[in-house]
């Protein structure tokens, strides 16, 4: 790690960890959604909305700290990008749940559970990695695995699209379900953006 003569603001590490913890909560709510009936889905959506609001608060706290700190633990633009990418994940997960409820989807297509399992694993890895920003040690396996998971998510997404367009669903249902699986794919992409940002930070700090 690069030697520094100046002290650094360390509260960012705790705030990044808090953001990642909200994402883990969101991923668990997505898992709950899979086996839930219509009434339960509404309640899950309300809890997801609360988790998303908590995630927003965590992101705003990072931005406030960034604007009020003279010295930061790493480059300001990387702090901003990391916080924004974490926030994007939470937004996409909340959007997916909201769409399921708003569209009154009766049954999610086979394969969505695989998408959500990938997101849940990526959420766990991200939460485990955030404390590692303090030392930048042992983070390589994290971003390699998240990138592998994103590739897996791409494959699942393509198979889901093929399934949706196989003639089983009517046109309106295809539009609804495609939007949901597309948003879940965007969440997987956002996890990769977080991992890539962590890799960039680690390289700069080495």
Q: How would you sum up this structure in a few lines?
A:
It is built from 6 helices and no strands. It is mostly helical and 206 residues long.
Describe the structure in your own words.
- The structure is a single chain.
- This protein is mainly α.
- Helices cover 78% and strands 0% of the residues.
- The protein contains 6 helices and no strands.
- It has helices at residues 11-34, 38-68, 76-102, 112-129, 140-164, 171-205.
- The protein is globular and about 55 Å long.
- 35% of the residues are buried.
- It comes from Streptomyces badius.
- InterPro entries: PhoU-like_sf, Put_Phosphate_transp_reg, UPF0111_domain.
- Belongs to the UPF0111 family.
Topology as a string of helices (H) and strands (E): HHHHHH
How far apart, in Å, are the first and last alpha carbons?
A: 4 Å
Mean pLDDT: 93
The biggest sheet amounts to:
none
Structural class: mainly alpha
- What is the alpha-carbon Rg in Å? 18 Å
Characterize the overall form.
Answer: globular
The number of distinct β-strands equals 0
Key traits:
206 residues, mainly alpha, disordered N terminus, Phosphate transport regulator, UPF0111_domain
Task: Detail the topology: elements first, then pairings.
Blueprint: H1 11-34, H2 38-68, H3 76-102, H4 112-129, H5 140-164, H6 171-205
Helix pairs in contact: 1-2, 1-3, 1-4, 2-3, 3-6, 4-5, 4-6, 5-6
Protein name: Phosphate transport regulator
Pfam families: PhoU_div (PF01865)
Family: Belongs to the UPF0111 family.
């Amino acid at each position: 790690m690069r030697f520094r003569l100046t002290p650094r603001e360390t509260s960012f590490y705790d705030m990044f960890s808090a953001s990642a913890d909200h994402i883990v909560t969101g991923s668990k709510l997505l898992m709950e959604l899979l086996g839930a009936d219509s009434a339960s889905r509404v309640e899950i959506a309300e809890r997801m909305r609360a988790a998303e609001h908590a995630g927003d608060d965590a992101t705003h706290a990072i931005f406030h700290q960034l604007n009020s700190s003279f010295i930061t633990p790493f480059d300001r633009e990387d702090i901003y990008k990391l916080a924004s990418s974490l926030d994007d994940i939470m937004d996409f997960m909340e959007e997916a749940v909201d769409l399921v409820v708003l569209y009154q989807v009766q049954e999610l297509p086979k394969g969505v559970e695989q998408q959500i399992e990938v997101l849940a694993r990526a959420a766990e890895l991200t939460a485990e990695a955030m404390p590692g920003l303090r030392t930048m040690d042992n983070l390589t396996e994290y971003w390699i695995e998240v990138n592998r998971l994103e590739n897996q998510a791409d494959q699942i997404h393509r198979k889901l699209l093929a399934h949706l367009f196989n003639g089983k669903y009517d046109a309106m249902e295809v539009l609804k379900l495609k939007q949901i699986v597309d948003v879940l794919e965007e969440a997987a992409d956002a996890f990769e953006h977080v991992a890539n940002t962590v890799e960039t930070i680690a390289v700069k700090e080495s």
